[in-house]
Design a protein that fits this description.
five-stranded antiparallel beta sheet, 4 helices, 32% strand, globular
Length: 137
C-alpha cells in the first residue's frame, strides 16, 4: 500500500494530481496483483473496471474487467469502495480504508488505498487503487 502511494506521490507535479495513464503498476511484479484501475463515469457505480489485479479479482464473483464497479467489485464492500471513489474524485485526495466484510471465502479483513488521476485539463477521470486482504480465521 505504501509503495503504491509512493508511486502516486512521485508522479505529482507542483501539488497537482498525477496525469491519467502515468500511474501503471501492472508492470511492478510486487504491486501488480494488488493494483486496480477504474475509469470514472458520471454515475460512479457505473464506472468500468479497466484493470483488476488478482488480489481483488479473487474476491469478485465474476471477472471484473470492463464491468461497472458497483456490480463487479466484491459483494459486501462494493458500495463502500464506490463511495470512496466518488469522494477521492470530488475532493481530489488520496483516501485509505480498512475494514471487514463477509464473502463466500469467509470473513475478510482488508486495506484499500484510492488515488485519483486527472486528465490534461485537470478533471479527475480515473481512480487507481491498491487492495490487500486476509481471511480471518
Amino acid at each position: 500500500m505504501c509503495r503504491a502511494l509512493l508511486h502516486w506521490e512521485v508522479l505529482r507535479e507542483d501539488g497537482r494530481l498525477p496525469l491519467d495513464g502515468t500511474l501503471d503498476l501492472r508492470t511492478d511484479e510486487d504491486l501488480a496483483p494488488h493494483f486496480y484501475l477504474v475509469r470514472l463515469a458520471p454515475a460512479v457505480a457505473a464506472s468500468p473496471v479497466e484493470y483488476c489485479g488478482s488480489v481483488l479479482g479473487d474476491l469478485c464473483e465474476h471477472d471484473p474487467h470492463g464491468r461497472p464497479a458497483g456490480a463487479a467489485l466484491p459483494v459486501g464492500v462494493s458500495e463502500r469502495m464506490v463511495d470512496f471513489f466518488h469522494s477521492a474524485a470530488r475532493y481530489r485526495q488520496v483516501l485509505a480504508d480498512s475494514g471487514s466484510f463477509i464473502s463466500r471465502r469467509g470473513d475478510i479483513l482488508y486495506r484499500n488505498i484510492v488515488m485519483p488521476l486527472q486528465d490534461a485539463d485537470g478533471a479527475v477521470v480515473s481512480i487507481a487503487g491498491a487492495f490487500s486482504y486476509r481471511i480471518e480465521t
